[in-house]
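Worked example 3 (structure in, sequence out).
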């Protein structure tokens, strides 16, 4: 469900380069399209997924933390490092032995 939400407006509101959905957090690398802000994109993702998850879990209340952590990617080297980090996050967490083993992620090739 979270992966579908991330992909829903890809190429319309943002260019999605990579993501990983972990058991307790999400990493994504994307470039907003003109007219869409980082905060509006994240609010949309968080609102949709929180409402859907709460409905499926038959619960109410906060689902995500109020805030988020963001960073600007300043050059191609940092872009590549960030994609590597996203792809390897499940491996680093001991959830799988290779990035390709984790079904809740995708990293675009250049």
């Amino acid at each position: 469900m979270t992966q579908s939400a991330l992909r829903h407006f890809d190429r319309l509101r943002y260019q999605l380069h990579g993501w990983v959905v972990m058991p307790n957090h999400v990493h994504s690398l994307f470039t907003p399209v003109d007219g869409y802000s980082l905060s509006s994109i994240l609010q949309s993702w968080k609102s949709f997924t929180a409402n859907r998850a709460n409905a499926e879990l038959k619960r109410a209340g906060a689902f995500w933390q109020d805030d988020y952590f963001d960073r600007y990617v300043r050059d191609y080297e940092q872009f590549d490092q960030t994609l590597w980090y996203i792809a390897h996050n499940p491996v680093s967490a001991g959830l799988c032995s290779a990035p390709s083993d984790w079904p809740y992620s995708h990293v675009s090739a250049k």
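Notes: The first helix runs from residue 2 to 8. The helical segments are 2-8, 38-57, 76-92.
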